[in-house]
Amino acid sequence: MPAPILTSIELLEFSYTRQGVAPHEKARAMLYSPGATSTLKARAIRIHTDAGIIGGYVGGNATEYAGIPQVAYALIGKNALAREAFYTTAKQALKQHARMGLSQIDMALWDIAGKYYDAPIYELLGEFRKDLPTYASTTPGDDHPDGLSTPEAYADFAEQCLEMGYPAYKIHTWREAPMSKHIAMLTAVAERVGGKMDLMLDPASTFMTFADAYKIGRACDDLGYLWLEDPYRDGGVSAFGHRKLRQMIRTPILQTEHVRGLEQHVDFIVADGTDFVRIDNDYDGGVTGVMKIAHASEGFGLDAELHAPGPTRRHVMAATRNTNYYELGLVHPKMGRAAPPIYLDGYSDELDAIDSNGNVQPPEKPGIGVEIDWAFIEKNQTDRTVFE
User: Fold this and answer.
1) What percent of the chain has pLDDT over 70?
2) Would you say residue 1 lies in a domain?
3) Number of domains in the chain
C-alpha cells in the first residue's frame, strides 16, 4: 500500500458551554463558580490524505494554531508518514515562534500513521505497559464555601480521591493567599492522607519571590511531598534559580513545563535545574518531540512526567518506562473538567475515569484510539481555515 500523501490541512475553532465554572480575574484561571454558565472556545486540526485517511487532533490554544500557517503549505503533497522530516523542517521554520503549531500537526500525523498501520499509537511506539498509575490534579483553589476554599476542603477532597483508588494527589493551590494559608493547607492534606498516597504541589508559578518558594519548599520537606513544581514568578524557566532552590530544600523539583522542545529540556537537565522532567505533547513537538525528551531524560537517569491528560498522553506513557503518573486534571469535588465534550466512544478524563486500582489505560482503536465527534465540532464551529 503506497504511503498516503497529504492533500489538505483544516483548522477549526468551536465553542461549547460548561456549567459551574467561570473565569476568575485575580486567579487568572477558570474556577469553580456555582450557578455560572461559561461559553468557552477550543480548537481542532484535521489532515486529509489522498488515501482517504484523515488524521485529527483536538487541543492546543490559539497561539499554537497561529503558528500552523508558517508550515502548512510546505506539507501539502508530502508523505504523511514522514513525521521526522516534518519535525525537522518545522523546527527551523518556527524557530522565532517557539515552535508553535508543530505539536498539533505532529499528533494528527501520528493519528494518520496509526490508521494506516491499523494500530494504536502506543503499539507503533513500542508498548511498555497498559495500566497507567494516575494522580488527581486539582483545579486552583477558589473562594466558595462548598469548593476548594479552605485547607480542610483540600484535605476532604484528598480523602475522597484516596477512597476512589487514586494513588497520588497533586495540589494546585490558591493563586492569591497568605503563605500561612498555603502551608496550613499542605499540612491539613498531609495529616489526613500522608503516607497513604503520594502528594505533590504545583503553585503554577504563583509565589512572588524566591523566598516564598524556599518557605513552601521547607514546608514540603517537613511534610514529605514527592515533588514541588513551578513554585515562583520566574515563570518556571530559570535553571539557575531552581538549581539554587534544589540546593536549599530536600523535596525534589519538577520543572521544564515552560521551556519548549528537546534542546531546552536537555540544557535545563545539564544545568541541574530539575529532578523530574516535565513533558507536554502540546508544547514540546507532539508525540515525536516528547518521546525524544523522555528518551534523553532516561539517558540522564531521570524520570519524565507528562503534563495534562488526553489520549495521546496515554499512548506516550504506555510506551515510556521512566515515568510515574498520568495527570488527570483539572478536577474538583463539585464540578467536571472544563474540557470540551468531543469524544464519542466513552473515553473520559473526568474524576471517575480511573479503575479500582487507580489506573487508566491507553485507548485501543487505530491512531489516537478514540472517535472524535466532528459533527459536534462542526455544529459549534466559529472559525475554519483550510490549506490545500
Assistant:
1) 99
2) no
3) 2
Same domain, 88 and 149: no
| Assessment of whether the complete model's pTM goes beyond 0.90 | yes
Cα–Cα nearest to 18, from 44, 40, 35: 40
Structural domain includes residue 19: yes
Distance, CA of 356 to chain centre? 23
The answer to whether 98 touches 284, Cβ cutoff 8 Å, is no
Average pLDDT, the chain: 97
For residue 292, the Cα-to-chain-centroid distance in whole angstroms is 17
Residue 354 · residue 166 · CB < 8 Å: yes
286 and 315 share one domain: yes
Q: Which domain holds residue 233?
A: 124-360
- Of the pLDDT bands very low, low, confident and very high (cuts 50, 70, 90), residue 27 is low
Reported confidence tier of residue 25, pLDDT bands at 50, 70, 90: confident
**34 band by pLDDT with thresholds 50, 70 and 90:** very high
How are beta strands 132-138 and 359-360 bridged, if at all? antiparallel
pLDDT tens for 197-223 read: 999 999 999 999 999 999 999 999 999
What is the domain-level CATH number for residue 14? 3.30.390.10
Task: Give the CATH number of the domain where residue 165 resides.
Answer: 3.20.20.120
For every residue of 22-42, DSSP letters joined together read: EEETTTTEEEEEEEEEEEEEE
Buried b vs exposed e over 106-143: b needs ≥16 C-beta within 10 Å? bbbbbbbbbbbeebbbbbbbeeeeeebbbbbbbbbbbb
